[in-house]
Amino acid sequence: MNEEIMEETISGAIVRSYFKKLTDNLAIDVAIVGAGPSGLVAAHDLARRGLKVAVYESKLAPGGGTWGGGMLMNEVVVQDDAAEILAEFGIRTEPAAPGYRTLDSVEMASGLIFGARKAGAVIFNAVRVEDVVMHDGVVGGVVINWNPVARLEMHVDPLVVTTRALIDGTGHPSEIVNKVVHKAGVAIDSPTGGILGEKPMWMEDGERTTVLNTKKLCPGLYASGMAANNVQGGFRMGPIFGGMIKSGRKVAELVAKDLGA
Ligand code: 48H
Question: Which CATH number is 27-259's, of 3.50.50.60, 3.50.30.60, 3.40.50.150, 3.40.50.970?
Answer without folding.
Answer: 3.50.50.60
